[in-house]
Amino acid sequence: MTVLNVNGQQHEVDADPRTPLLYVLRDDLKLNAAKFGCGLGQCGACTVLVDHTPVFSCLTPLAAVEGRYVRTVEGLGTIDKPGPVQRAFIEEQSAQCGYCIPGMMMRAQSLLEKNAAPSDAQIREAMAPNLCRCGTQMRILRAVHRAARLMTVEIERPMREAER
Amino acid sequence: MNAPQAALTRRTFVATGGALIVSFAMSRSALAQAAQQPVKLPGSLDKTPYLDSWIGIDGNGAVTVFTGKAELGQGIMTALIQCAAEELDVDPKVVTIVTADTERTANEGYTAGSHSMQDSGTAILNAAAQVRAILIELAANQLNLPTDQLQAKTGAIVANDGRSVAYKDLVIGQALHRTAQPQSPLKDSKSFTVIGKSTQRVDIPGKVTGAPMYVQDLRPEGMLHARVVRPPNYGAELVSVDVAAVEKLPGVIQVVRNGNFLAVAAQREFQAIEAMNLLAATARWRKIAALPDEATVHQFLMRLPTQDQTIVNKGNPAEQGAHVLRASYSRPYLSHGSIGPSCAVALYQADKLTVWTHSQGVFPLRDTLAKMLGMTPAQVHCIQTEGAGCYGHNAADDAAADAALVARAIPGRPIRLQWMREQEMGWEPFGPAMSSSVTGALDDQGKIVSWTYEVWSNTHSTRPGGPPGNLLAAQYLAKPFTPPPPKEIPMPEGGGDRNAIPIYAIPNAHVVDHFIPQMPLRVSALRGLGAYLNVFAIESFMDELADAAKADPVEFRLRHLTDPRARDVINKAAQEFGWKKDDKRPRGRGRGFAFAQYKNLATYCAVALEVDVEHESGEVRLGRVVSAVDSGQAVNPDGIRNQIEGAIVQSASWTLYEMVTFSRTDITSRDWSSYPILRFPNAPASVAVHVIDRPGEKFLGAGEAGQGPAAAAIANAIADATGARLRDLPLTATRIKQAIGV
Amino acid sequence: MLTRILGGLVIVVAVVFGAFFAWQWRGELPPVTANAASFDPGIVAKGAVLAAVADCAVCHTQAGGKPYAGGFPVKTPFGIVYGTNITPDRDTGIGTWSEAAFRRALREGVGRKGTHFYPAFPYDHFTNISDGDISALYAFLMTREPVHQPNRPTRLSFPLNWRPFAAAWNLLYLRQGPYRPDPGKSAEWNRGAYLVAGAGHCSACHTPRNALGAETKSDRFGGGEAEDWYAPALDAASPAPVPWTVDELYAYLRTGYADQHGFAAGPMQPVVLSLRKVPDADVHAIATFIASISGPRDATARKRQTEGALAFAAQRAVTTTGIAQGGTTGSANTGTVSGATLFAGACASCHHSGGGLPISRPVALGLSTPVNEPDPTNFLRIVLDGIQPPLGHRGPIMPSFSGALTDPQIEALADYVRTQYSRGGRWTNVPAALAKMRQQQTPTMEAP
From the list B587, B668, B734, which residue is nearest C358 (CB)? Predict the structure, then answer.
């Protein structure tokens, strides 16, 4: 039995400890966002955050993430209350088939937590491990820039309220 | 949309007083007998004329649109909702859409060829308009008023005197079960409030918040995970395999073997993968495949027997004129490269097979699966559920066939069969390798006087459409099905000859399509079909001719075009790019221009772009890209922009990097390390798409219009930057470096 | 008395210093105007090949910068020296250099104006290049695109930032060339030896250096360091389980992969990429030379070692479930997840024997040099950084595991892989090496 912390919630998972995290998230925890794209760490469709760092969940065994902080797109917000990265992707309409997008969003989330206002070149370099076959790269770049601005606003708003 | 969970329950039509009844295509002839309407109905209404096959309104006023087309990520659901909402005068937010389902929607064939707006959009637009007229009629009866005092407004029919009746109170019984008329009371495009707006896509919120949106997300009760073991290469025969050892593995339910078809089902996904690996390790195959030499495959293909067709024979194409140029162009086999390998879920229960699949054509697939399994079409239910972008005929149908075979071997258990990355890239049908050659002659005024063009290609369609032999698994069964002989897609659409006819005004022209039936590699439709190579060739050659005529590439094209819409698109792209004659460019920088009208009858698209070519390495950096596009009436301009941006970036990837590789026996491009595609650092500096809206004009499909122009614009820009003209795709750094020298 | 002695000492030091200063002083050679069009294209092409063997571009181009325009930080134990602008720009590059000035630079390590180079620029190797080849290199560089980019000052601590010290270093360590062939060896061997000693400067990375930063001549090819990677010994002490043959080396240098050794990683990746511009015959010559010094000299010993390594690797082949055959599954670390479990879940899916992708096809771990080296640095580097080909090019991809695995997990994994797939003793310094690595930057862009 492995205890997992996913999006702040504890889960007990009874699975072979060698099982890649991707299948645990999707099949045991019924979380849809992280996707199977290659299983080889080449495309990033499976990207989730572990301890704030993007990882390929298709190659991260369950045993390696026990007790660590796992985050998926589902932890960024909901359809009724989307988080800033999700809002940015919706507002920029940054998707065609959308299959690669959750992986993109998690890598972007991690980038923005370390760099609040990345340049275009920095975003491109950071996102390089993630593939998009539909050609949505330009919109994804715009969405990350937009998310950076939205995240700043999110920080500012509570500050302003605290000042009242 | 076919939200996966909803699709699993029985049909949940609201059965209140406001009834919603859907009925399906009767044969055209039966209809003709019944209604004696020999006149063609608009779009797909012609094959499926009952209005409630397309539009349903329930007792709560919710509107359901039914389309036989599939959402592939191209935004069709949203665009069709807009069409219906506009003509019905309802808020798009109350409209939901059901996509291709063999038991719920019209049969609109394949979602392909950029036909969806033309076929389904037209049908829905007209059906909605006619439904609106019926609602007015019904309201007139109810309110006892003449129809000219009534109008539709936000889900109700409103009278001049202020009274109103909501739609939900009008639709009773079989009110909408009427055949469509040839003419519809379509709104004036000037009054559109929904069509023409860049409405946000209905599927994106779910996709960015982890909703179950894809076939990969289905989890019906009792579901098992399955994997297939493919042979090492084409045609290999399974000699032996240790089924017992694999069935002993934890969680494995059953190994399914049928001739050379081999699959395994297990309780958990990782168990299925491990079982697949062990099954593959113990399997022994007799390999027979012989593939041509990759280095000379184009010559090999051109030497195979062909079925030739002259598609243009105008004037006297023998070379005349001051200046004669010749060139040959080629493209390799290309992979669809779907980011999510194909997947299907199938359930065989009580003599009925249900398959959830991201196939582009669930109706043809249903018929084909039925034949493969010896069932009747009525026993097979195929439900289109989104997958990753397919860009044509990828392995979606094959995954469905695999899942169906496993499901039939394990009745009563839903089977989720997922292809692996290596399988998708090794076994999907590729976009065919093609070659073409062109000769053009200029007069002393710098106008093209004659043009000959020949193109060589395999078929661009081996879609399952009845005979099971086009399904991969069917070819490997103990009683295998052979693939039917391939056929060329006829003009005006064309297959390998799509866009082979130059759109320019040329008095003497001869164009021949050399259709090659024999297929050494498995091939089928990839976005654009022959248009990618033909537009690449024609538009590269136009630049070569322009150069010989010492003319500006943009002005040279305009010299040969009279169609005002074509001219507008070219001028718009050039203007927005800032294309000036004799612009000075820094060392290593080039600019390129290209234009095409997809199939010479669909969307117009022009692309202007800049590149920087690094002399030491031959690497190309894409700079600014500017495009102009005319798709007729633009239902969702941002949707069109999204598609064209995507087409440009995808085509840039094909053009600069991509080719399927193979040894004398095996396909050797099996993952992203052996088939690299464009990554973020290589994406263009910027892409700006300008949509020229044509209110009132026919819908022209935009999904495939960008591939060819983007490719040619890149080749033209590289030639401009380096003086080196490359004609064989892909235009890799190695080839460019070789051409430009030390 | 004391003052007289001291006074005497001062005079002696001053005289010695004066003599030294006079001795090391080099005059300025007059500036010239070279005309790019005047160079014979055949000579330029020959120069291109030599520049590829030397891979001038890799140290003379900064990340994201224009080729040969300089700015790349070469890390030395004494500080950072930046590669200079060697484009023919007249103001900031070598556009005013005559061929004679260029030759003096390569042979003696002196610039046109008489300044001494630091031996971070391996003129102690380039001195071996023949006159004709130096002319060709000159022709090549003078026909590149001129780029205006001023050179960055070196970041060396006092007193090393006093350039004339380099002359003292030369006195001790520079043996001026050109290379002299060995008449007892084949033409191909000599060609390889020449390329390796000269332009290739392979021993610059693959040799240990002394306290003054010079190659330890007596241990040439005994193993060294490059850009935070360990450059393995290429001589009899080569840690490769299977001794390198000419064919294996040729495959490795030509394609970046050898069946019995694995992939080129780290600083060897740009070397292999650069060698693509070098004709097969020259790459084969380099392979011939290196193979002749690599591994056991005795043929019987080589055969025995090869067979033993292959047998061991086959015995330890990874099954499809990741659970290795034979050997132990024990891990030295307690309280963490077992290395065997981590390996099976994170590594086996690509590293299992049988099956395998056409390009990302890992060599059997029992044959892998990083796994079998005495130092865990390269193994850890690969686990942390992965391997990527240049964008848009075919080449093996191994993902980075730096986020997926914690340091204790990596240590457990390293210990497991070492005990499972190597017959060498356990690595003892994994935690220290890992900690050091975490502090170093991963090889990406350095901010200017």
Answer: B668
Q: What is the CATH number of the domain that holds B33?
A: 3.30.365.10
User: Is the domain of A94 the same as that of A153?
Assistant: yes
Report if residue B728 sits inside a domain.
yes
Q: Which of B75, B212, B339 sits opposite A100 (nearest CB)?
A: B339
Q: Which pLDDT score, from 0 to 100, does residue B16 have?
A: 35
Domains in chain A: how many in total? 2
pLDDT band at C448 (very low <50, low <70, confident <90, very high): very low
User: What average pLDDT score do residues A47-58 get?
Assistant: 97
Q: How near does any CA of chain C get to the CA of B277, in Å?
A: 6
Summarize pLDDT for B482-507 with one digit per residue, the tens: 999 999 999 999 999 999 999 999 99
In chain B, residues 64-123 whose CB comes closer than 8 Å to chain A: 72-75
- Whether C314 has its CB under 8 Å from any CB of chain A: the answer is no
Tell me the chain C residues in contact with residue A64 when contact means C-beta distances shorter than 8 Å: 337, 342, 345-346, 404-406, 409
| Yes or no, beta carbons of C337 and A64 under 8 Å apart | yes
- Which chain B residue has the Cα nearest residue A121? B681
Angle of CA points B141, B146, B147, to nearest 5°: 85
Whether residue A106 is predicted with pLDDT greater than 60 in this model: the reply is: yes
Check C320 against B742: CB less than 8 A apart.
no
C350: closest CA of chain A, how far (Å):
7
Share of chain C above pLDDT 90, in %: 73
**ipTM computed for the complex:** 0.95
Provide, as residue numbers in chain B, all residues whose Cβ is less than 8 Å from the Cβ of C392: 619, 656-657, 676, 678-679, 682, 732-733
pLDDT of residue C442: 54
Same domain, A104 and A58: no
Low-confidence ranges of chain B (pLDDT < 50): 1, 3-32
Residue of B nearest to C42 (CA): B742
| CA of C428 vs chain B CAs: smallest distance (Å) | 34
Residue A9 belongs to what domain range?
Answer: 2-75
Residue C447: pLDDT band with limits 50, 70, 90: very low
B664 with B619, same domain? Answer: yes
Same domain assignment for residues A16 and A48: yes
User: Does the predicted model carry a pTM greater than 0.80?
Assistant: yes
Domain hosting B605: range is: 524-740
A8 and A68 housed in the same domain: yes
Range with the poorest average pLDDT among B172-176, B717-721, C182-186, C302-306: B172-176
Of B207, B233, B260, the position where a domain reaches its end is B207
Distance from CA of C152 to the nearest CA of A (A): 23
Q: Are residues B360 and B242 in the same domain?
A: yes
Contact list, C139 vs chain B (CB under 8 Å): none
Contacts of A135 in chain B (CB under 8 A): 645-650, 652-653
Put simply, the answer to whether C399 touches A20 (Cβ < 8 Å) is no
- Chain B contact present for C69, CB below 8 A: no
One domain for residues A60 and A8: yes
Lowest mean per-residue pLDDT among A48-57, A74-83, B18-27, C159-168: B18-27
